[in-house]
Amino acid sequence: MCTGPTRILILGGGFGGVYTALTLERLLRRDLRRGTVEIALVNRENYIVFQPMLPEVISGSIGLVDTISPIRRLCPNTNLYTRPIEKIDIQRKHILTAAGLGTRPCELEYDHLVIALGNVTNLADLPGLAEHALPFKYLGDALTLRNRVIQTLEEAAIEPDPQVRRALLTFVVAGGGFSGVEVVAELNDFVRAVARNFRHLNTNDIRVILVHAGELIFPELPRSLAEFAQRLLNKRGVEVRLRTRLAGATAEVALLEGGERIATRTLVSTVSSVPNPLVAALPVKKERGRIVVDGYLAVPDYLGVWAAGDCAFVVDGGSGKPCPPTAQHAIRQARSLAGNLVAALRGTAKTRFVFTARGKMASLGHRSAVAEILGVTVSGFLAWWLWRTIYLMKLPGLDRKIRVAADWTLDLILPPDIVQLAAERPRAIGWEHFEPNETIFREGDWGDSLYIIVEGEVEITRDVPGRGSLLLGRLGRGECFGELGLLRQMPRSATVRTLTRVNVLVMDRGAFQALFAHLPPLRLFFEQLIQLRTQ
Ligand SMILES: Cc1cc2nc3c(=O)[nH]c(=O)nc-3n(C[C@H](O)[C@H](O)[C@H](O)COP(=O)(O)OP(=O)(O)OC[C@H]3O[C@@H](n4cnc5c(N)ncnc54)[C@H](O)[C@@H]3O)c2cc1C
Fold it and tell me: DSSP assignment, residue 113?
């Protein structure tokens, strides 16, 4: 129990968390003024992301920061802690956040806790996905994908090898649900529209592929709308691969179940979400990884703990069915939760959560969408107009509404932007995954990384004039390669191919040279290794 005002602590600044805070601010206005209640919200970012509009960031038809709204402005009477949450201790009623910029971790106590931490994208289940697939959930993901697409076009425009060029111009999106289809539609429109700006690019080489495990995309929508969407995507040049599952990825291919490999440098996975690790670690009852709540959004057996949004398993009081993980459900749950929390503070009657969604909509880019509203299905331009009007109204913050309306208006008359924002920090060390029989690097390539084998086996060969390919050796777990090219600043003197599935740690030139210069035992090790290998 906190000393001082009653503290309501909200975890997560998405739809669930922010709409809880907004409703509490309204319902507890007088208590907040008197200082008898305090609302605090902890979120990794200081803004809420309006995810339904995120795919439009890929094409730039909505400006990068216009899909987000600052939480401080939306909830002026809430104390915002912009920090990652490290631990939730519901026995001791406190949470721990990570440290900030030279500041300490912060422990926060609460009287009421609202958990609205959403889901996280799962890239861990399939080999190579964590290393090579791009997720699509946060603002940074949209920016990364936009940059990647522009970079592949830039590289394809100057790539002499037709096979590599085709791989650069192949874009694969996995998952035919709402986010996967919206992403593939925007990506396809964008690539085909801007390819004209790149001299020497043959637009016939562009392939945009949607991989979906089911019989039909959009399993959430009526069949007629899903079929309409599929036909439209096909017409615009998207290859829709149904009954096809992604099986893994490497830096150069998307692997499908059954063994097919699609050569690509851009794989987006919207396939599966898993519970937030903080939620997974809680000792509360869960269903499919989500926190089970009662009809009032309270967590049974833990007085003062509540949950809403994607991380909560909420059964709708009207239909008796579990709510799907959507923004409109998260918002309604948040409002209902806030009302019940205030009722608990005041000792008045709580209200059961009942909500029937009014409809579902998905944008297909290029002035087209599909929608089912109050049981009526609409597709094409009218659905697109409805989509834009409804989502513009729902976008939190008047300034954001004005910005997005201006973006959309300008988008009608101006060509799409093709600048690439260099926002990514260069990678010092990272992971890469390779399937059997893949080339990690070729003799003659420029040497810019050191590879340390974490798992698997590779073979090293060199072309000898008149004798063909000569096997120099095999390397396995714990061994490294690539040091010669790095240290001598020369092209690779051999080719490295995988014999099995291989996971490697890759260290870039800068990181390697810094270690080499300042760690004498390491320098000695590599000097001896190079001597041995060059003999
Ligand atoms: C591309 C895309 C398109 C979508 N389109 C639609 C649509 O058209 N219509 C619709 O209804 N729904 C749509 N959705 C689904 C909708 O966005 C989600 O259902 C909704 O965001 C759930 O809200 P939430 O508050 O539960 O979780 P989230 O919005 O995921 O919010 C969780 C918050 O918790 C924070 N958080 C998580 N872990 C930590 C931590 N350790 N420390 C600090 N903060 C943390 C996150 O940063 C985030 O701000 C879409 C989703 C995506 C990804």
Answer: E
**Bridge partners of residue 310, in order along the sequence:** none
CB 42 within 8 A of CB 11: yes
Angle of helix 178-194 versus helix 223-235 axis, rounded to 10 = 20
- The two structure tokens encoding residue 118: 């959403």
* Mean pLDDT for the stretch of residues 229-243: 95
Closest C-alpha to 357, from 384, 323, 386:
323
CA distance 279 to 88: 9
Dihedral angle at the C-alpha atoms of 381, 387, 388, 394, nearest 10 degrees? 170
pTM listed for this prediction = 0.87
Residue nearest to atom 46 of ligand 1 (CA): 12
Residue 103 pLDDT exceeds 90: no
Residue type (1 letter), 156: A
Mean pLDDT value across the chain: 92
Count CB-CB contacts under 10 A for residue 80: 20
The Cα–Cα gap between 306 and 20 comes to 11
What residues have CB less than 8 Å from 514, skipping those under 6 apart?
Answer: none
Tokens, residue 255:
């692997």
- Residue range 368-390, pLDDT digits in tens: 999 988 888 899 999 999 999 99
Of 17-21, 189-193, 279-283, 422-426, which gets the smallest average pLDDT?
422-426
Q: Residues with Cβ within 6 A of ligand 1?
A: 12-17, 42-45, 51-52, 54-55, 84-85, 116-118, 136-137, 178-179, 276, 278, 309-311, 325-328, 330
Question: In angstroms, rounded to a whole number, what is the distance separating the alpha carbons of residues 428 and 121?
Answer: 24
Ramachandran quadrant class, 24 (left: phi over 0; alpha: psi -120 to 50; beta: rest):
alpha
Closest atom of ligand 1 relative to the 13 alpha carbon:
49
Task: Give, for ligand 1, the residue of 42, 46, 81, 178 to mutate: max count of ligand atoms closer than 8 Å to Cβ.
Answer: 178
Q: How many residues can be counted in the chain?
A: 535
Q: Which two tokens stand for residue 464?
A: 């000898």
Which ranges of 296-451 does DSSP label H, i.e. alpha helix?
327-346, 381-394, 398-413
